[in-house]
Every structure is written in C-alpha cells, then in structure tokens.
Amino acid sequence: MVDQPEVASATLDALPPAAASSEPEPESILMLRKVSVSFSGKLAVRDVTFDVPEKRVTALIGPSGSGKTTLLRALNRLHDTVSSARVTGSVLLNGTDIYGGALHPTLLRSRVGMVFQRPNPFPAMSIYDNVVSGLRFNGVRKKSLLDEAAESALIAAALWESVRNRMTARAGVLSGGEQQRLCIARSLAVEPEVLLMDEPTSALDPQATRRIEELIDELSDRVTMVIVTHNMQQASRVSHRCAFMLMGDDRAGELIEVGPTDQIFGSPTDQRTSDYVQGRFG
Amino acid sequence: MVLCVICVALALIPLVGVVGYTIVRGAPVWSADFFTHAPTPEGIPGGGILNSIVGSLIIDGMAAAASIPLALAIGLYVSQSHSKIAAGIRFAADVMAGIPSIVVGIFAYGIIVNTMHHFSAIAGAFGIAVIMVPILVRASDGAFRTVPGDLGEAALALGAKRASIARRVLIPTAASGLFTAILLAVARGAGESAPLLFTAIGSQYFTASPMQPMAAMPLTIYLNGIQAYPTLQRIAWGTGLLLLLFILILSVAGRTASARLGRRA
Amino acid sequence: MLGAAVVIFLALLLGLAADLVYQAAPAFAHFGFAFVTGTQWNPVTTSYGALPFIVGTLETTAIAMMIAIPIGLGTALSLAYLLPKRLRLVLGTAVELLAAVPSVIYGLWGLLVVAPWSRTIIEPVIGFIFGHSGPASGPEIGIGLLLAGIILAVMVLPTMVAISRDVLMAVPSEQIEGALALGATRWQTLWRVVVPHARTGILGAVTLSIGRAFGETMAVAMIIGNTPSLAHSLFSPAATMASIIANQFTEAVEPFELQSLIAIAVLLLVMSLLVNVAARLLVRSVGRTHVSAA
C-alpha cells in the first residue's frame, strides 16, 4: 500500500492556484506530524500529517470508523483521560508541540476548545454559569469581566437575544439546537485559538443544523475551526479545506487526501476520495 | 489529590482496624475446646461456644428456610410484572430493608413471644427472616431481570406454561444471581443481634429445640463483650472472629458468584 | 402461588406496623403527646418521656454525618476517578465487604479498643481545643455521645461510599469531557461539574446513611453509656431510641415501662420510614435527572 501521508503532503505542495488566486495562504496554526493513536496497543489512527490554516474551517470527512473523531480528540489531548490510549507523533500549536511537555493539558484545552456531538451543557448550572464556566475554571472571578464575556460569547453564538432575559434559568430548558449554541458560546467565552467540533449537528434537526452551519460561517473569521462531519453537504458548505480519512486494511484510520474543499469535491487526486465524495452525492 | 489520599486513609483505617483487632484479639482465644464445648459455669475455667455456633446455625437455618421460598416467589413476581403493584412492592421492599432491626425484634416479640408466653429460638428465627426478606426480594428481582426477555418469550412461543417457564427457563438462567442473593442475605441475617435480644434471648446451655431460648454468636459477643471481666471479653473476641470469618466468606463467595455472571449484585 | 407470596409480604409489613402500634397503644393513651416532649424517664415515678432519646438519636447521627460526609465523599471521588484503576477495584471491593461487618463487632471494637483511646486522646484533645467548656465540658470517660457518633460514622461509611461512588460514576463522560475541553483542571471538573451533577444521588446516599444511623442498635447500645437523660456535653453518656430499647426491654417490669419502650420503637419506625422513603426517592430520581437534563 502506498504511504498515504506522503501522498497527502505531495498534494499539498502541488496545490497552487485555488487558494493563492484570492488571498495569500494563511499561516498554519496547527501542524500534525505523523500523529498515531492506539488503544490498548491497537492502532486506531496511523501517521496522519497535515496542516490546519489559521482562521479557516477545516473539515475531517470520511466514513465511520475512519478515525476522524479519534484524531480530533488527539488535538486537545482528550485521550489523556483514557488510560489505554497512546498518542505518538507531534501536534504543533503555533510551533509548540502539545505533547512535548511545555504546554500543560489544561492550558492547552483553554486554547483549543471543543464542541461535542451531543450538546452537553452542565445541567446543574444556569445558562449564565454555563457560558462563563470555562472562564471560572481558568480563574477569572471579576463579575464585570464575566458579564462582558458572557454577552459577547452569546452574541457570537447567536443566542443572546433568546436567552438575555433568562440567564439564571437552567440550561436544560433550552432546545437541543440552543443547547448546542450554548456549548459553542461556552467554548468561545474562553477565546480559544482553535475550536474543535465533533459532528456538532448530528443530534440536531435540520433547522437547528442550518443555524449552526451559519454560525460556523460567521465565526470563521475570528477562530480556527476543525470540524468532524459525516455529512458531505455540510463539509462542502462550511469548510475551506477538507481532509479525507479512510479505514485501512488493518482497521486503522489513515489520511487519504487533504486540500481545498472545492478541489476535494471537484477534482480529487485520489480515486478513493473521488469514489467517496461522488458516492455520497449520488 | 493529597486530600483524597487522606480521605481514603481515614475511611479505611478504622474499617481495617475493626477487622484487624478482631483477628488479633480473637485468634489467640481459638482452640479445639473453644469450638467443641458449651460454656462452663461462671468462675470455672475452660468451656467454649459450641452452643452459640449450633444456635446460630439453627436460627439462621430456620430463618433461611422460611424467607428464601417466600422472597424468591415475590422477586419472581416483581421481576416479571410491569404493573404498578410490582413497582409498589419493589419500593416497599426497599423501605422495609430500612426498618431498624431492633424494631423488627419487637415485632417478633409481639407476634411470637407474646403468643407462646416464653422466649424461643423460633421467635429469633422469625425476626431474622423478616430482616432477610426485603434483601432477598430486591436481589432476586435483580437476578430474574437479568434473564433476557426473549428467552421467556421464546419459551412462550413454544407453548410453555408460565409455571414451567419459571421452572425451566427463569430459575436456571438466574441461578447464579439467586445464589448470590441467598448468600448475601444469610450473611446479613447471621450478623444481626438486635432481633434476637428479646426473642432467642441467649442461653448458657446447649439446646437444639427451637421452642427453647437459644444462644447465638451475635448474642454471645454482645452479652460477654459488655462485661468488665477479661475472660468474658476474650470469649466475645473469639466468637467475633468466627462470626466475622463466616460472614466475610459468605460475602466473598456471593460476590465471586455474581462476578462470574458478569454483573454487580 | 406468587400472589400468595405477595399477600404474605404485605401482611408482614402491615402486621409489623399494626403489632407495634397495638403494643404501644397503652403508653400513647396514658401519656398522650407529652410522651414525645417529656424529658423524664423514671420507672419509679411512672413518668416516661421520649425526648432524651429522640435528641440522643439526632445528636449521634449529626456527629456521625459531620465526620462521614466529607470523608465518604472524598473516598467516593477517589474510588470513582482519582486512584489508579487497579487500586480502585481493590479498595472498592474492600469497602463493600466491610459493609458486611456486623454491628455487634463494631460495638465490641468501639467499647474495648476505641473507648480507651477516646478517654486518653480524642476527648482530652477536643476538650483542650474548646477550653473544656460548652459542648466539650464535663468528665472525659471515653464512652458517650461523641464515641457513639464516631463509631456510627465508621459504620455508615461503606454505605455512603458505595452509593456515592456509583452515582458519581454514572455522570456521563460528555459532562467530564465538556469541562476538560474548556480547560478545567481535574479538581475543577470534579467539584464544579461531576459532584453537582451527582448531587441528588449523593443526597440520597447521605439520607440512606442517616436512616441507617437512626436505627443502628447494638454498637450504639454498647458504647453510648445508656443514661436516660438529655446530654449536656459531647462527652456525656446518653441514649438513643434504639439503644434504650435494647438495654431496658428485658428488664422492663414496671407499669407502662414496656409499652413506653415499644412506643419509642413506633416513633423510631416512623422516623426511619420517612428518611428511607426520602432516600429511595432521591436515589431513584437520579436516573430521571439524567434524562431531563439531556
């Protein structure tokens, strides 16, 4: 089998016009270098290498079991909570290896936020407390700062108008879509550099999904996002770049191809990418 | 993290202390005579706790014989019924398990001792049985409910009657869980003293008659332990160690049986 | 056949309550409500008031909870999340097994091992801290209210730890990851997210422990000092509802003495039932909070 990451980087290098034509290629905020993840010695993701450009939306696509979520969770060291998990290779956040020991996982996670598949507001907290929980975890106590951050995060998450008069209500009273936007607001309040999103609309109805997608679009000029999705249309709508993953023969996920979204969907270089995106579009 | 280690230590030290002291103080008391003789009269050296051991076996045996069939039948009913009554009985069993054992003792006193006009082993067994019933109901309900529903349905589809489903499918499949339930309930019953205080009341003599007052290990521990004489306290420790071993072995055996089944009791 | 078993079960439950009330009726009829508020317990003058025992029960339980809640919660957190996996399993099983140790053995240990320490170390230290006044006044004799509270705390710990550990472990991992992903430390995640999420279940565990402490008989009867009067110090000998019954039942020969003891049992039954029903509702509602919160 061909060494896929090599192909991927080759694709990257051979990628002149699409992005270059409109604006200069942005800096890479995250650089993955031969990232592998294994559970109890069993490889789940193998040797993934690609760059995530700053203030762009990068989508991780691929069939289920291809290791998208596993890879995503390696980017904020969430695998640390699973004792059987091992991550090798390096992930550079602005040049610093997050697995290098120089960056404490707690600090890392306040710089790399995450929104989960199912909305997970803290049920014991009010809406307000949820939004500022990340700031409080990071030691912010001053009421005026918290108020300010809550308002701007809720405005950014397009939730301010609907919750401004019930900030003390429990988060459980919100609808599913609102809860997910609350979770996005909660992450934004910490002002992360990167926001990881793990299939953020898979538990939502189409209407709520559309609003989250619009939100991702609005946020894309202020925060870098990496979004895992199994929904091809969603990837093509919200992302600037796409990374396509596939399960290898030994059931470990591998990166097949990465590039600008219109290239991945329009003229992918790898036959498997083409099969997948076209199969999905029918 | 340090705080947690302190908490765990504070929780475990006294608990380990209870077991440790019982072993350290009880083991030297043990001898062949201790297990094979009834107590000697006050002031005469020697003697043992044979009457308490036999008494405990008789009382707990009677309690188990009475409570197990009853409680397993209730557990079976509750596990197979989705009615409000079943939910109510489950709740009642939970609440009943919280009734103080001394209150159960007074109940046994009122029902049996008052009727017979004298203390007896059977009154004690009644009290222990009342303690065991709710524990058995809940545990057997849990064991029966681990039987996959489609097994019973498959049997029904084969034309089996409800009674034979219970006998041929439910009980054998849940057997290991029921075994655990019984062991844990007997362990609990065997350690109870309060229901025996005014029923079996204790005895210095060897007897096997359920109609007579009878000694039991928990009573022997209590009655000797509160005396100011070291010789009597030694008897309490020696009996305590035997009772503790008996109960821990039952509990470990019960847990092992349920662990083999791959679920928690 | 199953129906018959159910009928016997319900008859047993109702019979228990009815029998107790029937046996206690003469005392309630004779003393009226004053039985609950009376502070004298004197067979010689035929005056029986249950207040000292009600208060004794509440006091020993309160002492036990003050000790057991922080230690139990800390231990439950450790067993659920903080300790290495293998240690969790071993210690968790140990704690569960220790729940099987009979009350009378705790009593024996409390009376013959801990009481001397209580007299020579625990009580003098507490007496020194509080200047030998107020709740820490009076002779330091080892047995009494404080020792009963301490031993009760040890006895309810296994129950409290086992249940709170289970409800803590039932907190969905999405909640924990959600906090971690915001940059929360492990402690912050536990204290601000996991514990609040499990609070109903923990409250249930505490309530269940209170129920257990209310009814605990043998150990308390052996170490509390059996004095039928209101305690004025932590070091005073006292009595609880359960312990006074255990200690005086077989010697109750004066008029109304036995009926009064059984009347205490009725009060104890009512208190235990209330606490246990509350505990069961709390522990049971844990499942529901998960659903409604999602």
Structural class of chain A: alpha/beta
Which band does the percent of strand residues of chain A land in? 15-25%
Structural class of chain B comes to: mainly alpha
**Per CATH, what is the topology of the domain at 4-9 and 27-118 and 196-281 in chain A?**
Rossmann fold
Relevant CATH superfamily of the domain at 4-9 and 27-118 and 196-281 in chain A = P-loop containing nucleotide triphosphate hydrolases
Could you tell me the radius of gyration of chain B in angstroms? 21 Å
Question: Care to count the β-strands of chain A?
Answer: 10
What does this structure look like?
The complex is a heterotrimer of chains A (282), B (265) and C (294). Chain A has 282 residues and is of the alpha/beta class. Chain A has a domain at 4-9 and 27-118 and 196-281: Rossmann fold, CATH 3.40.50. Chain A has helices spanning 4-13, 17-22, 68-74, 105-111, 127-137, 143-156, 160-163, 176-189, 206-219, 232-238, 261-266, 271-281, and strands at residues 28-39, 42-53, 57-61, 85-93, 96-97, 112-115, 194-198, 224-228, 241-247, 253-260. In chain A, strands 5-4-1-2-10-9-3-8-7-6 form a ten-stranded mixed sheet, with helices on both faces. In chain A, helix 5 (127-137) packs across helix 6 (143-156). Mean pLDDT of chain A is 86; it is low at 1-21. Chain B is an all-alpha fold and 265 residues long. Chain B has helices spanning 2-26, 32-36, 50-80, 84-97, 101-116, 121-145, 149-157, 162-191, 217-225, 230-260. Chain B starts with a helix and ends in a 5-residue tail after the last helix. Chain C has 294 residues and is mainly alpha-helical. Chain C is globular, with a radius of gyration of 22 Å. The chains are: A alpha/beta (282), B mainly alpha (265), C mainly alpha (294). Chains in contact: A-C, B-C. Chains B and C meet through helix 1, helix 3, helix 4, helix 5 and helix 6 of B and helix 1, helix 3, helix 4, helix 5 and helix 6 of C.
